[in-house]
Write a structure and sequence with these properties.
The chain is mostly helical. The protein is built from 9 helices and 4 strands; from the N terminus they run αααββαααβαβαα. InterPro entries: Bact_transf (IPR003362).
Length: about 240
């Protein structure tokens, strides 16, 4: 037996001994490998859909993007895009893109109106008549058009079409251990609570719905949520 064969035999015996000592039978090990294979396959299909859909949509939406960019600049001169640091899967930070819907000093003015927060739970800030939003911005937020640049985030892999909405670092700092379950998957543009009432749903219930998605996620569920997103956007339920 040469050195390579000896090394292979030793590794084989070590592996068998390690699994026997851990109490895992070969049958259970096979089931575990099969399960990991199913999960990996699901993620591959999900990622493939994300890439293809984001590319196709970005191309088709070029005329709409041009119109929205012109309207934003006319309503509030300045950058038409707004970038913000968000928390992704497992706490990884990334830059999320949106069409700008607020005046340039919006972040500084937040301290002045924070006491008027209308979102139950205290973690998120939402206000129906937020004075920091300019007229065109109010329209694109209500129609969810401001979220469309996130297709670029989907293409890059920072986000997915479907998944829990990405949170701000300041919000994650207030998360309980249960809330942090939202960080176990790649964040998305739409999710269960986005099609079920959006900002009308209190934060604790949003977490419950996100955890429900994580525990039952599948390609078919993603397709159903994407289809439900269309009427939710058209009816503007809970959008402000």
């Amino acid at each position: 037996m040469n050195d390579d064969e000896l090394q292979h035999e030793l590794l084989h015996r070590y592996s068998r001994l390690r699994y026997l000592n851990s109490g895992i039978s070969p049958r259970m090990l096979l089931k575990r490998w099969l399960w990991h294979g199913v999960i990996s396959g699901t993620y591959f299909v999900k990622r493939l859909i994300d890439v293809l859909a984001s590319v196709i949509l970005m191309i088709l939406l070029i005329p709409l993007f041009a119109v929205i960019m012109a309207l934003i600049y006319k309503s509030s001169p300045g950058p038409v895009f707004y970038k913000q640091t968000r928390v992704g899967r497992w706490g990884k930070l990334f830059t999320m893109w949106k069409f700008r819907s607020m005046y340039l000093d919006a972040d500084q003015r937040l301290k002045e109106i924070k006491a008027q927060n209308e979102m139950a739970g205290g973690v998120l800030f939402k206000m129906k008549n937020d004075p920091r939003i300019f007229p065109v911005g109010k329209f694109i937020r209500k129609a969810s058009i401001d979220e469309l640049p996130q297709l670029w985030n989907v293409f890059k892999g920072d986000m997915s079409l479907v998944g829990p909405r990405p949170a701000l670092p300041s919000e994650v700092n207030q998360y309980s251990l249960q809330d942090r379950q939202r960080l176990e998957v790649i964040p998305g543009i739409t999710c269960i609570w986005q099609v079920s009432g959006r900002s009308n749903i209190p934060f604790p219930q949003q977490v419950q719905l996100d955890v429900q998605y994580i525990q039952s996620q599948s390609v078919w569920l993603d397709i159903k949520l994407l289809l439900k997103t269309i009427p939710a956007v058209l009816l503007s339920r809970g959008a402000y």
